[in-house]
Amino acid sequence: MPIIKSAIERVKTNNKANARNTAQMSAMRTAVKKFENAKTAGADNVDDLYIAAVSAVDKAATKGLIKRNKAARDKSRMAARYAK
């Protein structure tokens, strides 16, 4: 544990940011998995889940949690799967 006050504050800030980032990534992955599972099962609400998944990926890219190219790649794959 750091002794210097600014370092202590930095640790607290980093922990908060880490928790926030982890929650955001988890939400994104969950949205994508829900879409994938619904598409595989042939559920009725695939349209809503697709929109939610794309939105979650866009939000993660905007926040800097994933790179823009990864977001584009993921959205492209989901769009292809959605159209199938």
Automatic annotation (TrEMBL):
InterPro entries, per the entry: Ribosomal_bS20, Ribosomal_bS20_sf
Keyword Metal-binding: no
GO CC annotation, single: small ribosomal subunit
Gene Ontology terms: biological process: translation
GO molecular-function term, one example from the UniProt record: small ribosomal subunit rRNA binding
Membrane-traversing stretches: none
Top-level taxonomic group: Bacteria
Keywords: Ribonucleoprotein, Ribosomal protein, RNA-binding, rRNA-binding
Family indicated by similarity: Belongs to the bacterial ribosomal protein bS20 family.
NCBIfam families assigned: S20 (TIGR00029)
Role according to the record: Binds directly to 16S ribosomal RNA.
Protein name: Small ribosomal subunit protein bS20
Organismal lineage: Bacteria, Bacillati, Bacillota, Bacilli, Lactobacillales
Encoding gene (name): rpsT
